[in-house]
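Hey, I'm writing a tutorial for new members on how sequence and structure tokens pair up, and I'd like a real worked example in the thread rather than a made-up one. If someone can provide the structure for the chain below, I'll link this post from the tutorial.
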Amino acid sequence: MIKLRCNDYGFECNFVVEGEIAHVIEEFGKHTDEEHGIDYSKEALMQFILRKTS
């Protein structure tokens, strides 16, 4: 299970998504685009996950 939190990446936001990698990438990317106006690529989101788990 992977967990990403918006506030870990500099946002004043309590959004958290947890689950399998594909789900986390999809939901976190959708959230940051819709709520913060930032369209992260799937590759960038994968880097967030890799840095967090290493």
